[in-house]
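Kindly go through the following sequence and its backbone structure tokens. Advise at your convenience whether the structure tokens fit the sequence:

___
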Amino acid sequence: MGVQFDADEGAGNEVILRVKSSSSAASVASAISHAVYDGKRVTLRAIGAGAVNQGVKAIAIANSFVAPRGIVLDTRPGFTTVNTPDAGEISAILLRILVH
């Protein structure tokens, strides 16, 4: 089974991971940790409770991936509006990953 999330290269040094309710939390965690290792800023975008759940689980798993290297991940939640062809404007949760 393939990875169940989409990645966008944001402005400059940012990666935006679009998480779905069907996303594998371990796969998203792997993408988070690799982006952190590459020095990129990471933001998760989730629409719906199931997607937010997978995103939060992914951050927890990613923390365990990066901890042996002395890295600690924090999260700053926020909102954004997404335009979709089907539903028009809908709200999404943004989970910004802060690296310490």
Notes: The first helix runs from residue 25 to 37. The mean pLDDT is 92. The helical segments are 25-37, 49-66.
